[in-house]
From TrEMBL, chain B:
<protein>
    <submittedName>
        <fullName>Sugar ABC transporter, ATP-binding protein</fullName>
    </submittedName>
</protein>
<dbReference type="GO" id="GO:0140359">
    <property type="term" value="F:ABC-type transporter activity"/>
</dbReference>
<dbReference type="InterPro" id="IPR027417">
    <property type="entry name" value="P-loop_NTPase"/>
</dbReference>
<dbReference type="GO" id="GO:0055052">
    <property type="term" value="C:ATP-binding cassette (ABC) transporter complex, substrate-binding subunit-containing"/>
</dbReference>
<dbReference type="InterPro" id="IPR047641">
    <property type="entry name" value="ABC_transpr_MalK/UgpC-like"/>
</dbReference>
<dbReference type="GO" id="GO:0005524">
    <property type="term" value="F:ATP binding"/>
</dbReference>
<dbReference type="InterPro" id="IPR003439">
    <property type="entry name" value="ABC_transporter-like_ATP-bd"/>
</dbReference>
<comment type="similarity">
    <text>Belongs to the ABC transporter superfamily.</text>
</comment>
<dbReference type="GO" id="GO:0008643">
    <property type="term" value="P:carbohydrate transport"/>
</dbReference>
<dbReference type="Pfam" id="PF08402">
    <property type="entry name" value="TOBE_2"/>
</dbReference>
<keyword id="KW-0067">ATP-binding</keyword>
<dbReference type="InterPro" id="IPR003593">
    <property type="entry name" value="AAA+_ATPase"/>
</dbReference>
<dbReference type="InterPro" id="IPR017871">
    <property type="entry name" value="ABC_transporter-like_CS"/>
</dbReference>
<dbReference type="InterPro" id="IPR012340">
    <property type="entry name" value="NA-bd_OB-fold"/>
</dbReference>
<keyword id="KW-0813">Transport</keyword>
<dbReference type="InterPro" id="IPR015855">
    <property type="entry name" value="ABC_transpr_MalK-like"/>
</dbReference>
<dbReference type="InterPro" id="IPR008995">
    <property type="entry name" value="Mo/tungstate-bd_C_term_dom"/>
</dbReference>
Length: 326, 386
């Protein structure tokens, strides 16, 4: 308290009102964080949103407003139809399979008494490795002639395997598939690498989730008559993993939307045969960076953000409404 | 409802012998407490009865049938866990219904959404709902059926766990320290309720606790366990008044029993602190100690066997416990007196204590009770203990 505090005019009194003073301090303390958030996160999004309605190119001094033309292109042109097909194929394949495999691996590892750490390390290795380097390794393995995959498959030709597996018999006759060069297989190969790379991460998250399941609940379930492992899973494990599952699914789907490096490594130009692996991230990179079409690139970015936002909102809703924490 | 028989149950974990051949007959409808300090194997024994743990040797008979090798879900027992183990994602009603759903509905009828469309599912569902609301009424939790366990207090959760146990008619109820997570007041209240519930259901109860007060107040019989053995199994009054073993005498009773070293003189006559007693043991007994409950001691005139200084006292309102330091004794002697004595039992006051030799419990050097006393001790029967 200073001497001036003792004599206050009515205005000063109201300024000294504790609630107002607290509010002002609160704003002052929040200001730096707020400024950074606006500058780094909100402003670029806002700029991208504005640019998505223009034909701006980097280096140009001006731009023209083109209205919703960019969005119109996205929804009408066949290239972008392919983009959406590839993106959703990837997300809808990789997310459920990598979540399922992650859960399965976590349950199996959790039931082990020995070698837990070994399995954890093995499954987690692809997560730690650089995807672009791993993609190159897969490229070698999937090479049509010298790749280990086709050489292994070729070993089955002329044996009983061929009679049991018509697909193999067909390829023994016509030649082994060009995994990366064939329009039918390309996106699935990319999905496979994505699952291979991603499920170890989900497994680690599920393992963490499993440690929080109360052991006595399994005993209670047994006493209550849950005989099979499946019943105990339904009654105890799965509900207890609810929060983990929501998180894992959200993270996996956002990561799937963001897939880029596999495709960039496999197909630096063109995003696969017949643009069959032309996912959104690659499209943003191709349009916005390589071809300097900032307008259309921004439009794709906005769509991309829309999808991610949707997933996040669904997650929020699930967490608040359906999932039990406790 | 059925009785339980345990025959020579042993359990080892690696090198550690947790249970050393336990035999116990529990009659149909009896309430038996397994009481002992932590680590005595009482919970392990309960889990072996439940089938959650396999015994290393010995057999468990439920209703006369050997259930060794029968899994827990097929033993038709109910259990209340220390942590209550309620399913957190299910409402109270759903929690209570789980044992019935698991047993009475087929796998198809239990499926979400389409399960209720299966033939017979509706009728069964109504039966189950009826049983759940009846169990809830018994426990006075019918207002909570729609809540989740996370929204309940400890006492309410405990009731839900009880409700889940009694919604069906099991062969026996197993309770694993069900009151240990409740506050003191609620514990006393629930204690009485469980005892009443037992009388009402006339079911077999096996109750594990480390709290001797719980065991004393609720049970038909108490099995005092220590070091993987049952030291004594008898009615609460007998365990208190007539313990077989020094360890039982020490464990049961609060405050703890007073132990005084006794010398064996000519003809086996015992003396305490140089005062000969009107008691004699068979000659050859060594390391004899006599146990005196706090209420067996009375304030007497000078010349009594024990003379000491009051160093601490606890006034419980109805009772007054005074700790008396007697020169020559390692432990303080605890005396129970009526509150009227408060004026004479001031701190630092010197008191002389005597006792009726008939109330003394005599133990030999190995801690076994010596009953072959020359002046046979008439057992005092007490109605209310503690």
């Amino acid at each position: 308290m200073t001497a001036t505090d003792t004599i206050l005019s009515p205005q000063q009194l109201s300024a000294a009102d504790p609630a107002r003073r607290q509010r002002r301090t609160a704003w002052m303390l929040t200001a730096p964080a707020l400024a950074l958030m606006v500058l780094i996160l909100l402003a670029p999004v806002a700029i991208a949103a504005v640019l998505s309605f223009t034909n701006y190119s980097l280096g140009n001094f001006g731009f023209d407003w083109v209205g919703v033309e960019n969005y119109d292109k996205l929804l009408t042109r066949s290239t972008y139809a392919k983009m959406f097909t590839a993106t959703f194929t990837y997300v809808l394949t990789v997310t459920p399979i990598s979540v399922g495999l992650g859960l399965g691996a976590a349950l199996l590892i959790n039931s082990l008494t020995r070698l837990r750490d070994l399995y954890k390390t093995i499954y987690f290795l692809p997560v730690m490795a650089t995807l672009i380097a791993m993609s190159i390794a897969w490229e070698f393995m999937l090479h049509p002639t010298i790749g280990v995959v086709n050489q292994t498959l070729a070993k089955g030709c002329g044996t009983w395997v061929e009679t049991l597996w018509p697909w193999l018999a067909m390829h023994c006759a016509e030649g082994m598939p060009l995994w990366l060069g064939n329009r039918r297989y390309a996106i699935w190969v990319v999905c496979f690498v994505g699952i291979w790379q991603g499920f170890g991460f989900n497994m680690v998250l599920y393992l963490a989730g499993l440690t929080s399941v109360h052991r006595e609940l399994y005993h209670a379930a047994e006493i209550d008559g849950a005989r099979s492992g499946w019943e105990r899973f339904r009654l105890v494990t799965w509900p207890a993993l609810g929060p983990t599952t929501v998180f894992v699914v959200t993270i996996s789907s956002i990561r799937s939307f963001q897939v880029f490096d596999t495709i960039e490594a496999f197909y630096p130009i063109g995003a696969g045969p017949g643009k069959s692996a032309y996912v959104m991230m690659f499209a943003i990179f191709e349009k916005g960076v390589e071809q300097n079409l900032i307008g259309i690139g921004s439009a794709i970015t906005m769509m991309f953000l829309g999808f991610v936002l949707m997933i996040t909102l669904i997650q929020r809703w699930l967490v608040e409404r359906k999932v039990h924490y406790g | 409802m059925a009785g339980l028989i345990l025959r020579q149950i042993a359990k080892t974990f690696g090198e550690t012998r947790v249970l050393r051949g336990i035999s116990l007959d529990i009659a149909d409808g009896e309430f038996v407490s397994l009481v002992g300090p932590s680590g005595c194997g009482k919970s392990t024994l309960l889990r072996i009865i439940a089938g959650l743990e396999a015994q290393s040797s010995g057999e468990v008979l439920i209703g006369g049938e050997d259930v060794t090798g029968v899994r827990a879900s097929d033993r038709n027992l109910s259990m209340v866990f220390q942590s209550y183990a309620l399913y957190p994602h299910l409402t109270v009603g759903e929690n209570i219904a789980v044992p019935l759903r698991m047993r009475q509905l087929t796998a198809a009828q239990r499926l979400p959404v389409i399960g209720s469309l299966m033939p017979g599912a509706r009728a069964r569902g109504r039966e189950i709902a009826g049983a759940v609301s009846e169990a809830a009424r018994t426990l006075d939790i019918d207002g909570l059926l729609e809540r989740k366990p996370g929204q309940l207090s400890g006492g309410q959760r405990q009731r839900v766990a009880l409700g889940r146990a009694l919604v069906r008619e099991p062969a026996a109820f197993l309770l694993d320290e069900p009151l240990s997570n409740l506050d003191a007041k609620l514990r006393v209240h629930t204690r009485a309720e469980i005892a009443e519930l037992h009388r009402q259901l006339r079911a077999t109860f096996v109750y594990v606790t480390h709290d001797q007060v719980e065991a004393m107040t609720m049970s038909d019989r108490i099995a005092v366990m220590m070091g993987g053995e049952i030291l004594q199994c008898a009615a609460p009054g007998v365990v208190y008044d007539d313990p077989e073993d020094l360890r039982v005498a020490e464990f049961i009773g609060s405050p703890k029993i007073n132990l005084l070293p006794a010398d064996v003189g000519d003809g086996g006559r015992l003396s305490v602190m140089g005062h000969p007693l009107d008691l004699a043991v068979p000659s050859g007994a060594r390391g004899v100690r006599i146990g005196l409950r706090p209420e067996a001691l009375v304030v007497a005139d000078a010349g009594a066997p024990l003379v000491g200084r009051v160093v601490h006292f606890e006034n419980l309102g109805s009772d007054l416990f005074a700790q008396v330091a007697v020169p020559g004794l390692e432990d303080r002697v605890v005396l129970r007196a009526s509150p009227r004595m408060r004026s004479s039992l001031r701190l630092d006051a010197t008191v002389a204590l005597s006792f009726d030799p008939a109330a003394a419990l005599v133990f030999d050097g190995a801690g076994k009770r010596l009953r072959d006393l020359r002046r046979p001790a008439a057992n005092r029967h007490r109605e209310a203990v503690l």
